[in-house]
């Protein structure tokens, strides 16, 4: 494969990844009732994720190729499975916050690779797009890392209080 073929394949993967992120975040936000700060930040990141999908699609469009419908569908299916699995755990909010941080770091790594590939192709527009997206992902990863302790403490307090819902 050529540099460009690898690059386009990875850009398609990024589009599918953002579709998966949107699905996971929407399901998590919809279930959160007792953690307003976490819910608000997730809802903000849903808007960012939708914008990121459009930006990634703009790169795909510039290279005159189509996004992978199969990868997008597989990403949504994976996100659904994660959401359903999380609903079955008593500590759903804590495990969801941990998983969210892991996923954000996964996205950061993907965009770092895309930036390097775009640089190799001398594609400054894609470098700019992926740098912007990576900055948003880094901000979300930082937020989740900085607030994970608070979410965990809130969960523990709620779960030890009789008659108080802690799960979500």
TrEMBL record:
<protein>
    <submittedName>
        <fullName>Ferritin-like domain-containing protein</fullName>
    </submittedName>
</protein>
<dbReference type="InterPro" id="IPR009078">
    <property type="entry name" value="Ferritin-like_SF"/>
</dbReference>
<dbReference type="InterPro" id="IPR012347">
    <property type="entry name" value="Ferritin-like"/>
</dbReference>
<dbReference type="InterPro" id="IPR010287">
    <property type="entry name" value="DUF892_YciF-like"/>
</dbReference>
<dbReference type="Pfam" id="PF05974">
    <property type="entry name" value="DUF892"/>
</dbReference>
């Amino acid at each position: 494969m050529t540099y460009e073929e690898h690059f386009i394949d990875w850009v398609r993967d990024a589009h599918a990844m953002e579709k998966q992120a949107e699905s996971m975040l929407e399901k998590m936000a919809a279930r959160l009732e007792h953690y307003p700060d976490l819910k608000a930040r997730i809802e903000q990141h849903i808007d960012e994720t939708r914008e990121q999908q459009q930006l990634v699609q703009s790169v795909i469009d510039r290279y005159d190729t189509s996004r992978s419908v199969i990868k997008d569908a597989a990403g949504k299916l994976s996100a659904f499975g994660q959401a359903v699995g999380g609903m079955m755990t008593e500590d759903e909010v804590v495990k969801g916050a941990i998983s969210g941080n892991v996923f954000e770091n996964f996205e950061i790594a993907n965009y770092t690779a895309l930036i390097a590939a775009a640089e190799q192709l001398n594609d400054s527009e894609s470098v700019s797009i992926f740098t912007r997206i990576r900055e948003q992902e880094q901000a979300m990863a930082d937020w989740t890392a900085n607030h994970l302790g608070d979410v965990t403490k809130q969960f523990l307090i709620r779960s030890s209080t009789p008659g108080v819902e802690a799960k979500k």
